[in-house]
């Protein structure tokens, strides 16, 4: 399949050799996973990184649910300074873009992190996690178009790095928020983050997760994610990266056909460490089977408006 | 790290006792598996998503075998228990830190329920070091006990919740009579048992650094990427069971915080 070019352009110079990335929080900072060939990855999106180190939530942090899992890790991470000093120098030697996922409690946090990462060798882009509660406004940045737009604009002014913004699905009007973020200068959007869910331990009559609620990921959320990508991709002119329960190449193709330019694979990494590699190969095989040589040739059929 | 990902052929699956199943798999690199290390097993039952972490109960390096002993508690373990000889199970491992077994001091092993599994291999390894070994073994009832014949050259004292075998009560009640002054303690079982063991050790003046526990907890990845298997750290923050454990000395753990986190 040497003639197949799986390259994608996510704007502002962020070019991937494969459309299949590993999603934030499922690959730490790229150093730990055994049995994964880094050369097979389109990009690594790191664990959510905050201004200062965070210990994360008390256990229990994860729970399996039907075809899915809940997590409430609580953004355990070593902080941006450690990322710059300990990790970025290694990334600079990799032939692989590393996108740092950025999280914060206030616009100023995000701006400070973006400034700290700007121009650091080894860092290819930022992905903003806007599912964090805004300490000033008392609700998540990602649930309000005005807040999300303001945050994106502030970060845009603080960095020349390619900027991807990760949409939360826990909203009533995802398209309006996506438009506001695109208008504020994001280079791409990723969709979707986890859905807020809960599991109760009936035997002990209490929530399983110490945090009570957690983010639901895995195949259970895939149809919701495909629908979100379909709607967002039709509404914005920047690339959309599809995320949500992708386990196989066929799953990834659903997102690409729904309008995504690329995808991120998350929970599948826990189950099948070679998932990203298999999905990339499966996409290439699908293109070859249909006589196409690039992803741009995938025929996106026009939405049927009702 | 010698972790590998491969389909392992099942050699044998046996029901050992009420609710307890033993699966024996071909694993050519069995010599590299240390007592207390674990494998992530893929399951294919409908709706089950994550791999199941199971400690290697024992290994047979000469024949290239690894044995697993576990409870059937749900669809995932049920699927694994239903594997027959010749079937394949997708294994990732060995993972994590095993027990440190070198030394010559007497060993006291404390097992609760299926926590006994890891002592099948550990007791052999301790015997190979010439260490005198006593196993204190607690279970709900006599029919849930792994047969003592599986532990040759090892003294065993039993406790059951219903009194149907051995001491009537918790296994931790046997500690004071069994732990000689210079003994090393190895423990695997439900978290409340480990918490009680740590409490007993403090009261008895036994240094927590002399106790190695194998901590069992739900896991996502098993390799340090999901951060799902956090264990409160004595100095603040969290350890990861999959990387800092599952075997670690009891002085590293903030046991008071665990009392609330893991229940039953």
Structural key phrases:
heterodimer; A: 306 residues; alpha/beta; TIM Barrel; eight-stranded parallel β-barrel; B: alpha/beta; Rossmann fold; 2 domains; 6 helices
How would you summarize the topology of this molecule?
The complex is a heterodimer of chains A (306) and B (264).
Chain A: E1 8-9, E2 15-16, E3 20-22, E4 43-45, E5 62-65, E6 68-71, H1 80-91, E7 98-102, H2 107-117, E8 125-129, H3 145-158, E9 163-167, H4 174-183, E10 188-191, E11 195-198, E12 200-201, E13 206-207, E14 213-217, H5 222-235, E15 240-243, H6 249-258, E16 262-265, H7 268-271, H8 275-289
Parallel strand pairs in A: 3-4, 3-16, 4-7, 7-8, 8-9, 9-10, 10-15, 15-16
Antiparallel strand pairs in A: 1-2, 5-6, 6-14, 11-14, 12-13
Helix pairs in contact in A: 2-3, 3-4, 4-5, 5-6, 6-8
Chain B: E1 4-17, E2 20-26, E3 38-41, E4 52-55, E5 58-60, E6 65-71, H1 75-81, E7 88-95, E8 107-112, H2 117-128, E9 133-139, E10 155-160, E11 167-168, H3 175-178, E12 184-188, H4 191-204, E13 211-214, E14 230-232, E15 238-240, H5 241-244, E16 247-249, H6 255-261
Parallel strand pairs in B: 8-9, 8-12, 9-10, 10-11, 12-13
Antiparallel strand pairs in B: 1-2, 1-7, 2-6, 3-4, 3-7, 5-6, 13-16, 14-15
Helix pairs in contact in B: 4-6
């Amino acid at each position: 399949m040497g003639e197949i070019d799986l390259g994608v352009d996510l704007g502002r110079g962020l070019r991937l050799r494969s459309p299949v990335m590993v999603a934030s929080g499922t690959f730490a900072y790229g150093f730990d996973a055994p049995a994964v060939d880094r050369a097979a990855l389109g990009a690594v999106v790191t664990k959510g990184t905050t201004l200062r180190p965070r210990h994360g939530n008390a256990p229990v942090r994860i729970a399996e649910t039907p075809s899915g899992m809940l997590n409430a890790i609580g953004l355990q991470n070593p902080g941006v300074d450690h990322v710059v000093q300990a990790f970025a120098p290694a990334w600079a030697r990799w032939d692989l873009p590393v996108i740092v996922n950025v999280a914060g409690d206030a616009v100023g946090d995000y701006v400070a992190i973006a400034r700290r990462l700007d121009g650091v060798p080894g860092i290819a882009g930022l992905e903003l996690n806007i599912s964090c509660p805004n300490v000033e406004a008392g609700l998540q940045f990602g649930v309000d178009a005005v807040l999300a737009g303001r945050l994106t604009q502030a970060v845009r002014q603080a960095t020349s790095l390619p900027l991807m913004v990760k949409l939360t699905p826990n909203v009533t009007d995802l398209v309006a928020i996506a438009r506001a973020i695109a208008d504020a200068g994001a280079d791409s959007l990723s969709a979707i983050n986890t859905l807020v869910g809960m599991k109760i331990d009936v035997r002990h009559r209490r929530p399983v997760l110490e945090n009570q609620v957690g983010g639901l990921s895995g195949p259970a959320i895939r149809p919701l994610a495909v629908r979100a990508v379909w709607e967002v991709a039709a509404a914005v002119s920047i690339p959309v990266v599809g995320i949500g329960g992708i386990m196989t190449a066929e799953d990834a193709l659903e997102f690409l056909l729904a309008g995504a330019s690329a995808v991120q694979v998350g929970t599948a990494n826990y189950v099948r460490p070679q998932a990203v590699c298999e999905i990339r190969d499966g996409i290439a095989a699908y293109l070859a089977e249909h006589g196409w040589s690039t992803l741009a040739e995938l025929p996106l059929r026009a939405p049927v408006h009702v | 790290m010698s972790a590998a990902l491969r389909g392992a052929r099942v050699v044998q699956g046996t029901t050992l006792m009420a609710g307890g199943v033993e699966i024996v798999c071909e694993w050519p690199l069995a010599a590299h598996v240390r007592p207390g290390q674990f494998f992530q097993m893929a399951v294919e039952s409908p709706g089950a998503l994550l791999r199941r972490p199971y400690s290697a109960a024992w290994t047979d390096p000469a024949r290239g075998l690894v044995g697993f002993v576990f409870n059937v508690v749900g669809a995932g373990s049920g699927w694994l228990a239903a594997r027959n000889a010749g079937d394949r199970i997708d294994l990732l491992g060995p993972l994590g830190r095993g027990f440190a077994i070198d030394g010559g001091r007497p060993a006291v092993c404390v097992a609760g329920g299926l926590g006994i599994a890891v002592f099948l291999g550990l007791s052999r390894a301790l015997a190979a070091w010439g260490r005198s070994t006593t196993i204190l073994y607690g279970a709900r009832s006599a029919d849930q006990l792994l047969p003592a014949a599986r532990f040759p050259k090892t003294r065993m004292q039993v406790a059951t919740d219903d009194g149907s075998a051995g001491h009537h009560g918790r296994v931790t009640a046997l500690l004071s009579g069994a732990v000689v002054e210079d003994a090393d303690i190895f423990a695997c079982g439900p978290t409340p048992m480990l918490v009680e063991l740590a409490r007993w050790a403090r009261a008895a003046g036994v240094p927590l650094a002399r106790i190695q526990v194998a901590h069992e907890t739900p896991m996502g990845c098993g390799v340090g990427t999901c951060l799902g298997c956090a264990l409160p750290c004595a100095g603040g923050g969290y350890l990861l069971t999959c990387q800092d454990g599952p075997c670690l000395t009891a002085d590293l753990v903030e046991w008071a915080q665990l009392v609330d986190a893991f229940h039953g």
